[in-house]
What we know:
Oligomer: single chain
Amino acid sequence: LWQKGPDESWKIALSQGLYQATVDSAKPNFRLKDRALMNASEQTLLDADIDFPKYAARHGIAAAFHHFIAADGIAAGSSGAAAATKKTYARLMEEERKIKRNQVLKWKPTFSKLDRSHIFGYNLGPYTFTVIGKDGKKRISKGYFFSIWRKSEKTGKWRFIYDGGNRISLR
């Protein structure tokens, strides 16, 4: 993604799910704006992404994705997995109910941005996915997520239209 700077020049704002403030930047420097300085739309977008993992912890990962994905949304699979839709998550939700999986997905937005209309926005930040296998061994995958959200004109709720990320480590 490109972002216009204060000097009217265009710089890379996001590259393949990784933070990048400028083309020459060696280190990520995006920081979440202080909540006290956010307007109501910015706060509700951020709250949606903060509520997402809480919902996942209570109801299951597939149920959370099914709840927060827009009817026309997609979630890009990491490591070459196929993209998932609302219909995919409905099926996975049923599987999740039948099989109790020992998995936890946590994430936290560290950057959030709205378009001028306050209808679209995006969040990005780190995630951790932990699975305890049948052998009892814990496997942890970490990376960065990037999600694009759209606010419903009817309900005022945020639903993601794209979710993706990149894995940077696996233990």
